[in-house]
Design brief:
This protein is of the alpha/beta class. It folds into 2 domains: 5-151, P-loop containing nucleotide triphosphate hydrolases (Rossmann fold), CATH 3.40.50.300; 175-239, no CATH class. The protein has 11 helices and 8 strands. It has helices at 5-15, 28-31, 34-42, 59-68, 83-96, 114-122, 163-168, 178-188, 192-197, 205-215, 227-239; strands spanning 18-24, 46-52, 72-74, 103-107, 140-143, 148-151, 219-220, 224-225. The strands form 2 sheets. A 6-stranded mixed β-sheet has the order 3-2-1-4-6-5, sandwiched between helices. A two-stranded antiparallel sheet has the order 7-8. Helix 4 links the parallel strand 2 (46-52) and strand 3 (72-74). Helix 8 packs across helix 11 and helix 10 (205-215) crosses helix 11. The longest helix has 14 residues, at 83-96. It is elongated. The two termini are 28 Å apart. Bound molecules: guanosine-5'-triphosphate and magnesium ion. Magnesium ion binds at residues 114-115, 135-136.
């Protein structure tokens, strides 16, 4: 993990010609980082918004976003949707600056798919990916015929503690308190988890979690609901897109 987040981010921005900000297409507003965007602009570098995991997002939402953020490319590293468009977009932006082989830095929160984007762009499994957030530990350089790519560890800026966001999109895959995180998500996104498990929405979220535990067959001795285990399953379902955001 980078010790000094901003020093590291600044370093990559200085080094690169183009920055790909990788965000989760399901929750773009929550997974983009305005401070990073501001720094990229101040250094007069080019930013391309890369909405990844669009295989998990709703098309109507994506169409709306397309108009707001430019230049943006919607991709899926799972289905390879949009990868050629992304390559083309990088080439177009590079040409505007007179560059033939640009240095492309990839930034974003943990678990957004930065390393997967590098692999998709290079056409090889050059860097390792993982469903555990905070997997990439240091900067990694990958050279392809067209680009110099820099993979970076996704880091949450110090002080940012949006539990709901972090748990829901897997920015933080190792939750310190899965039950608490799940209850908070249920409070913020009324009905999202309930409708997936076909249980009624109830003011009392603890009761709902108990019901879901039974649905999931998470039961402890004495036929008691194992809400901690149920919460872990729910958070995993959200991260992996099984539960629709
Ligand atoms: N469904 C889906 N999953 C994806 C996609 N891209 C990446 N993933 C998954 O998301 C997880 C994180 O991917 P990584 O590429 O390791 O993410 P990262 O941003 O490099 O993560 P850190 O190195 O931890 O910061 C992995 O389990 C990937 O398989 C995508 O387009 N769709
Ligand atoms: Mg990575």
């Amino acid at each position: 993990m980078w010790r000094n987040f901003w020093a590291a981010v600044n370093g990559v921005i200085s080094e690169a010609d183009i920055i790909l900000e990788v965000v989760d297409a399901r929750t773009v507003a929550k997974t983009r980082n305005l401070e990073i965007e501001d720094k990229v602009r101040k250094k007069e570098k080019i930013i391309i918004y890369v909405m990844n995991k669009c295989d998990l997002a709703s098309k109507a939402e994506l169409d709306k976003l397309k108009k707001i953020l430019t230049p943006s490319v919607f991709i899926s590293c799972k289905t390879y949707h949009g990868i050629n468009l992304l390559k083309e977009r990088i080439r177009i932006e590079a040409r505007k600056k007179g560059l033939t082989k640009p240095i492309v830095g990839v930034l974003g929160y943990p678990n957004m798919g930065k390393s997967s984007v590098i692999n998709a762009l290079s056409g090889t499994g050059r860097v390792r990916t993982s469903s555990v957030s905070g997997f990439t530990r240091g900067k990694q350089y990958v050279t392809t015929r067209q680009f110099y790519l820099i993979d970076t560890p996704g880091v949450i800026p110090y002080g940012e503690k949006d539990t709901v966001k972090n748990a829901m999109v897997g920015i933080n895959t190792i939750s310190k308190d899965p039950e608490y995180d799940t209850l908070m998500i249920m409070k913020e996104y009324i009905g999202m988890i309930e409708s997936h498990y076909k249980v009624p929405v109830n003011e009392n979220k603890e009761e709902t979690l108990e019901k879901i535990a039974f649905v999931l067959n998470c039961v402890k001795k004495g036929n008691l609901p194992d809400t901690a285990r149920a919460a872990e399953i729910i958070l995993k379902g959200l991260r992996e897109g099984k539960i629709k955001i």
